[in-house]
Amino acid sequence: MRESSHLLNKALEYTKFSYAPYSKFKVACILIASNGNEDKEFYGVNVENSSYGLTICAERVAIFKAISEEYKILKALYLVAVDSEGFEVLDIMPCGACRQVMIEFSDNLSIITRKSEYKIKELIPFSFRLKNHI
Ligand code: THU
Fold first, then answer.
1. Measured from the CB, is residue 27 less than 6 Å from ligand 1?
2. Measuring from atom 1 of ligand 1, which residue has the nearest CA?
3. Catalytic residue among 13, 38, 41, 59
4. Which of 33, 38, 93, 134 is the most exposed place for a label (fewest CB within 10 A)?
5. 95 alpha carbon to ligand 1 midpoint, in Å?
6. What is the pLDDT of residues 9-68, one digit of tens each?
7. Does residue 20's CB lie within 6 angstroms of at least one atom of ligand 1?
8. Domains of the chain
9. Is the beta carbon of 57 within 6 A of some atom in ligand 1?
10. Is residue 61 classed as helix, strand or coil in its secondary structure?
């Protein structure tokens, strides 16, 4: 738990890199991923766009950074957010789209927030999978 709050605090500092001029809702995360030999921390923040639908969540930024460096074993994701008034949002949870991206790579990824800890398979039961059909 001490390690969790350390990583959540580190992620909280990273919200300053969030690009959220429209929602002003700043999200940041630290993903711990492995390439089979070593674990590495990948940071992510939400990056919004004036064409709103092009916005990407912090979680997907971190996951795509990890996958693109061959760190494909997703172990733990520490997630924080700050609202438009600068207050930390304690009950942040990953959106449905991010859950689908997470389950693509791991059943065992832990999602850790200030308030809770879940395995991704608990957060997206009966998820869509193509793997078994091709
Ligand atoms: N957002 C995330 O980055 N992660 C989530 O899990 C939920 C939402 C972002 C997207 C958008 O920039 C802002 O939060 C408000 O929806």
1. yes
2. 57
3. 59
4. 134
5. 7
6. 999 999 999 999 999 999 999 999 999 999 999 999 999 999 999 999 999 999 999 999
7. yes
8. 2-123 (3.40.140.10)
9. yes
10. helix
Average pLDDT across the chain, whole number:
96
What's the CA gap between 86 and 68, in Å, rounded?
32
Contact 89, 81 (CB under 8 A): yes
Q: Does the annotation count 48 as an active-site position?
A: no
Quote the percentage of the chain above a pLDDT of 70: 96
Q: Which residues sit opposite 26 in a β-bridge?
A: 82
Picking from 20, 82, 18, 26, the residue whose alpha carbon sits closest to that of residue 50 is 20
Beta-bridged to residue 30, according to DSSP, are 43, 78
**Is the C-beta atom of 61 inside 6 A of ligand 1?**
no
Instruction: Return the SS3 of 52.
Output: helix
Whose CA is closest to atom 13 on ligand 1?
A: 25
Q: What is the pLDDT of residues 70-127, one digit of tens each?
A: 999 999 999 999 999 999 999 999 999 999 999 999 999 999 999 999 999 999 999 9
